[in-house]
Amino acid sequence: MDSELEPFLPLIPRADLSDPVGERKRLADLVAALPQPDVSGLEVNDGDASGVPVRIYRPPAARGAIVWMHGGGFCAGNLDSEHPFAARLAADSGAVVISVDYRLAPEHPFPAAHDDAYRVTTWAAGHVAEPGLLAVGGMSAGGGLAAGVALRARDEDGPRIGFQLLNQPVLDHRRETVSARSFTGTPRMDRENVGRAWEHYLGGGPVTPYAAPALAGDLSGLPPAYVAAAEHDPLRDEGIAYAARLLEAGVEAELHVWRGTFHGSHAILSAEVSQRQMAEMAAVLRSAFR
Questions:
Q1: Alpha-carbon gap, residue 184 to 126, rounded angstroms
Q2: 6-50, pLDDT tens digit by residue?
Q3: What residues are annotated to the active site?
Q4: Model pTM above 0.90
Q5: CB under 8 Å, gap of 24 or more: what pairs does 77-81 form?
Q6: What is the DSSP string of 250-269?
Q7: How far from 221 is each of 13, 154, 155, 242, 290, CA to CA, in Å?
Q8: Rounded CA gap, 252 and 272, in Å?
Q9: 193 and 16 in contact (C-beta within 8 Å)?
């Protein structure tokens, strides 16, 4: 573990996705303890995008827009829990960030969250983003939603997406990778919680590539992607595998496995590695919109 992150481990509660309602409160309390961003230079508005609540962050002289999906194992998180990250991403990247308050499992299993994310992306393509300057992205479960939206947009000749920003994405319900099998006691997320997240999200229904993008047989024709993975994260290897498959399919892809980190540790901004993670995601998005 990174030496600057290790002292925080006793202070970080393990996620418990066996209790989604309780986990929503635990996540809210955890985020409330984080340093809050300075939004004085941003125009921040709550709104509605084709029936889905959104929060839009618009920096001065913004270029490009990203539809951003929060993490929380498909069953926790909202606009407020994602506020610190979304605001920083907008301020540091210079892009409009459209944070999506998608419906949560298990009350609303797949395809509810996926449909919400796709509706907002379609709306953004016609109302916010300049032609060719639209990205999708997300953290954890949100990264999986973003990848699913990109697949559907390709398959249905939907909104033109120019980039995917996938931070520690949830992509594969099978949990057969080395990291998914091995990491049974890692901070925040471990094998058990990943399994619970998938149970809530899938609800016993059929599993399609739009739910679990790792199942997609063909990744050609997808937008360029940046995939970030944390070393001590059960999701690590599915992110690595997805980036490799994108490259094999002829899609431009960049992969960064952050040494000494764990799932969501980039929120600990006092650590130098976290500062680099946040700065890199913003820089990657700026570069995508040049």
A1: 44
A2: 999 998 888 999 999 999 999 999 898 888 888 999 999 999 999
A3: 140, 233, 263
A4: yes
A5: 77/24, 77/27, 77/104, 77/141, 77/142, 78/24, 79/46, 79/53, 79/54, 79/55, 80/28, 80/31, 81/27, 81/28, 81/31
A6: T--EEEEEEEEEETTGGG-T
A7: 40, 7, 9, 14, 21
A8: 28
A9: yes
Query: Do 152 and 223 contact (CB within 8 A), yes or no?
Result: no
Structure tokens at 215: 């199942």
| Residue 14 CA from chain centroid, whole number | 19
Tokens 């300075």 -> residue: 38
**The token pair that represents 255 in the structure block:** 């992969």
The two most distant CA atoms of the chain are separated, in Å, by 48
Q: How far is 52 from 33, CA to CA, in rounded Å?
A: 27
Residues 6+ apart with CB under 8 A from 82: 68, 70, 71, 99, 139
All domains of the chain, ordered by start, with CATH? 6-288 (3.40.50.1820)
Supply 20's token pair: 């989604």
Cβ atoms 120, 214 nearer than 8 A: no
Q: Look at residues 141, 233, 227 and name the one whose alpha carbon lies nearest to residue 179.
A: 233
